[in-house]
User: Fold these one by one.
Assistant:
Number 1:
Amino acid sequence: MPPNVNPATGQRLSNRITTTQADIDSSIRAASDAFLTWSVVSPVVRSRILLKAVKILRDRNDELAESETLDTGKPFSETSTVDVTTGADVLEYYANLVGADGLSGETTQLREDAWIYTRKEALGVCVGIGAWNYPLQIALWKSAPCLAAGNTMVYKPSELTPLHGRLLANIYAEAGLPQGVFNVVHGDGSVGAYLTSHPEVAKVSFTGQVSTGKKVAAAAGAGMKYTTMELGGKSPLLVLPDADLDNAVDGAMMANFFSTGQVCTNGTRVFVPYEMLDNFHDRLLEKMDHIRTGDPMDPSVNFGPLVSKEHHDKVVGYIEHGRTEDEAYLLYGGGKPSGLAPRFREGYWVQPTVFTHCTDEMMIVKEEIFGPVMAILPYTDVDEAVRRANATPLGLAAGVFTKDLNLAHKTIARLQAGITWINTWGESPAEMSVGGWKQSGLGVENGRRGLEAWVRTKSTLVDMSGKVATVFAPR
């Protein structure tokens, strides 16, 4: 297996390892043994352990952020303020939720002498399969509700960004998490496939591209396992005619260039009214100067490289296709950033890129690029924009910019997506349940509903009449 590489320099960072099937089996056995005790630990006690882990995460924020920057290439200005923080926020949220009666069931009086009650019980050994764009955050988004609910986890990081896995395992252990509750294995898709089909696994939570997610869901479904799938998107951002121009441009830039465009919820199809198009172009070009490339550890840098050479070549291929085959108008970018220091010139850099006067049939409009490539699509009226926005098999996210909040709510209600924003883009707090529609996913993560994905309900009817109602009685 090739080594792990620093995307900013293209230089070797660490060796990649693959966990053997025998060691995977050992990890699953350890998780299964640990489940017997962890699942019956009081939620309050589980909460205390997880809150200790939260404190360690926050205390080591910069150290963990630096590791994420080396592994992903994302700027330290981002990893130090978003990646570690939002992961810790979710762990803190679920620790507090289960510690404050969040796992209680319901009680219903059926009749005077009969009651129904429900219990929320942990599933068992769960598998988390992470992605390379937000490694530590995604690991925490999966493990936090899993462990808080009383499950155990075997977690596989992406082979492209493996460094966080062992760091998180050590933090959990330091916080007092019992051995076997959180386990880390490494490898490519073959390791994920083995985990997904393992008979001792009760649930699989996967984050990644749609094509892989379909395979994971099919394999898990064959074993009747619980699943959560957070997959890709080709999300629309609608700028309505009355929108504040500066806010709309800022939103479109955040929806396309944050994390170098490597965000599943990116709003890469930007719908702009014809009458606003020229002004939108002008303001966007002015603000593109605020994107700063360079040493990812420089606090002033806000735009890093793509994660790998393979992914860089894929994104560059889409840009070239947009130019030559789609014949879209290239408004900005399309090449490699200038002015990079010599040690970064072998990294996987690409300019933020904007195509305009795009049409729905173009490949750069239809397919998820997962890079910093914005497609601007002019439209005539809002009904047309909504219809075109929904004309996709994906449904992860959508957003609207307008001063008319009544119109905003009506428009959002018509958009076919599971995560939506009004006059903002991208924020995903712990309290907000998020999940895709259509082919963009199954289930949700975060929020109160996110905890429900990690428990099963047992319903019990208690009859206290002292007599069983039966049809098999004497006449």
Note: The longest helix spans residues 76-99.
Number 2:
Amino acid sequence: MGSAVADPAPPPEEANSFAHTAKDLFSGAAGGVAQVLLGQPFDIVKVRLQTTSQYPNAFAAAKSIYQHEGPLAFFKGTLTPLLGIGACVSVQFGGFNWARRSFESANLSNGRPLDLSLKQIYGAGAFAGLANTFLSCPIEHIRIRLQTQPHTTGQRLYLGPVDCVRKLIQQKSLYRGLTVTTFREAQAYGMWFLAFESAMRSAAPGRGGRENIPTWEIAAYGGLAGEALWISSYPFDVVKSRMQTDGLGKAKKFVSTRDCFVQTWKEAGFGGFWKGIGPTLLRAMPVSAGTFAV
């Protein structure tokens, strides 16, 4: 998805045109589908490690899932993100480019260079993450509930995504974890776009301009940006996953985001905020590379 950041800026009068926005949204949707299909098997291992202590490592978790639930279990909860991730990534890239053009207009108005500073790149990315929060929070909540429910038919809590949504709405819990999701999204996508743009700017002079950077190199920078995204925001993701697998109603263990942070620290210390980081980073490279290269 190199063009989402790498293309030369359009003239200010075209900056907010429908055509540019539509292009951003469509490109983002294509990248989002790539994210889900490449990353879902890694994601279920990550979530299981984050929310339970029954697995000593990622390999043991993957082996247990395969042996006891079958190969299709690695794609539990796929339908919801597959339907929603296109919208999420569209909002991410659409929001980033809207913020970028707003910064460009402000730079021109104040007599500064058109190109955004790296601080502005981070700000545009954080805005994209914030805009995405209200989509990503319920989508990920539904996926995580389906990924972690008992496998045996008689013990399942939800018959599928629709039943899960219905029950979460009944419990007024569809947006459970919204606060920590907001922190995660802002930090994650601020760093994602910052890391990618920093790499592109460093490479451009040696290539005679960023338009000459080959697709494989753009994909590599996208992959590295994915690593930066997760390393910078992972503790927030652990807390989010724990809150979104918590009991509902009277069975609720965590009364707030702060309480979840405190209890995680008391239970596992610093390491508790990094459970599942291995498969997450393993997934991040190809998923993020595919998103920027689409």
Note: The mean pLDDT is 88.
Number 3:
Amino acid sequence: MDIFWAAPPVSRTLAAATLGASILVHSGLLDGRRIVFYLPWILKFPPEIWRLFTAFLLTGPQLGILFDTYFLYTYGSALEVDSLRLNKPGDFFTYLIFIAFSVIVTNGLILHGVVFTQALTLALAYTYAQENRGRQITLFVITLPVQWLPYVMLLMTSVMGGPDAALGQATGLLAAHLYDFLTRLYPEFGGGRNFIQTPALVKRWFGGNQPGPATTRSYGTAFAARSTSQQSQDASSGSSSGMATGVSNIWGSRGAGRRLGGD
């Protein structure tokens, strides 16, 4: 359990929920119709609001349970920990909410899809690729530039699942590109404003009110010590300053060269 609690909080929760829900459904212990996206059941009274979330937690059967969960955790944790844009308290959670909303609109309302896990996985892979442009990765036995990763995944879905499955998965790529455009491309190159900001409530929820600026690293979250003047003020009032929290690496055996989709 220490390994689990040491993992990035949002990614570990998403992966655990996905693994648990998928096992229950594919083992027959839970009716999959109870968790997929179906608008009439969401809008009825009482509304089945949980479908807005559980539709992102159902993987494919058999080996799909392991591979889909692994991809979700691998790319999700990499963004939550190492991304310069998403590693501040609450930023990765806000990113997921935006991706989920976009996928629900495009995949659920327009394409009438019912399961969005593949779209979410592709969104994470696309953002991961954008954050690591110029690197080489190994996907299964193929070494390729990281920016090709989401398109290779989309091609594999098209071959194994057909064009309809690929179209539904592509909504995740569209959502991730829209996020990238609104938060990076448009503000940096178009002179516009970044309208997708992490709410203060979410920042506090994820520990953004800790003393000093927070920096999430591969081994945990570190809070910078206060300045000398702040320390002097604290000393006069009898308070202490500085705080650091370290956690071990995820899943114990994962190394820099063992992550699927990494170097």
Note: Residues 59 and 68 are 6 Å apart (CA to CA).
